[in-house]
Specification:
single chain; 5 helices; 32% helix; 6-stranded mixed sheet; globular; Flavoprotein-like_sf; FMN_Rdtase-like_dom; Rossmann fold; NAD(P)H-dependent oxidoreductase; alpha/beta
């Protein structure tokens, strides 16, 4: 697939660089190919051009236990991912579309984020305050707007800030079998949407890093 080169590079110095963690929620464990991973990696590439160092983690490769606590006990894979999330400036949740909904893996990740409401800083705010979040959605039927709305609400509820144009997505024709990763080139609309999300997320993350939300 052809990568987009439409994003204008910025000149962020090393001290101005940000970090992003992308958690993708494919139902397929690695190393299986994933359209969700592909579009998410394209977003991370676009973020890199704005001075953001990114890491992609496929959630299904980790034993994320069901629950709403930060740590669900021995063997739980979420605490290590949570530390990566809290260390990052930007969080990306990527999900495929199944039956018009986000994946069950994505739902589990969102449920685990509920614990952030009780982990607060000196101002009484969740530690996620000042962090930016966005979404990636792929699928072969409609549902991207509904899914992104659910993800946005969940992330905002626990303290993340959503930038303008906070999702990039691709939906194939209904009832057809073509995946995003099967396309010969990236559709222009998807490429430009990805570039916009990267630019806006990096911009907002820098502003929030330099000027934190005030205590209520």
């Amino acid at each position: 697939m052809t990568e987009s080169t439409s994003t204008t590079p910025t000149t962020a110095g090393n001290g101005d660089r940000l970090t992003a963690l992308a958690i993708t929620c494919s139902l397929k464990p690695s190393p299986a190919d994933s359209s969700t991973d592909l579009l998410t990696r394209q977003l991370l590439d676009a973020l890199e051009r704005h001075g953001v160092d990114g890491e992609l983690v496929r959630a299904v490769d980790h034993d994320i236990r069901p629950g709403v606590e930060a740590d669900m006990g021995d063997g739980d894979g979420w605490p290590a991912l949570r530390e990566k999330m809290l260390a990052a400036d930007i969080l990306v949740i990527g999900t495929p579309t199944w039956m018009g909904q986000h994946s069950s893996i994505a739902q589990r990740v969102l449920e685990r984020l509920d614990a952030e409401l009780s982990d607060t800083n000196e101002a009484g705010q969740p530690r996620t305050y000042g962090k930016v979040a966005g979404a990636v959605v792929v699928g072969n039927e409609d549902g991207a707007h509904h899914i992104s709305a659910v993800i946005f609400q969940c992330l905002n509820d626990v303290g993340f800030t959503i930038p303008a144009g906070g999702v990039t997505y691709w939906n194939g024709e209904a009832m057809h079998a073509t995946d995003y990763q099967d396309l010969d080139e990236t559709p222009e609309k998807t490429a430009s949407t990805t570039a916009t999300l990267a630019a806006n997320a990096a911009h907002l993350a820098r502003r929030l890093r330099d000027a934190a939300y005030p205590a209520a």
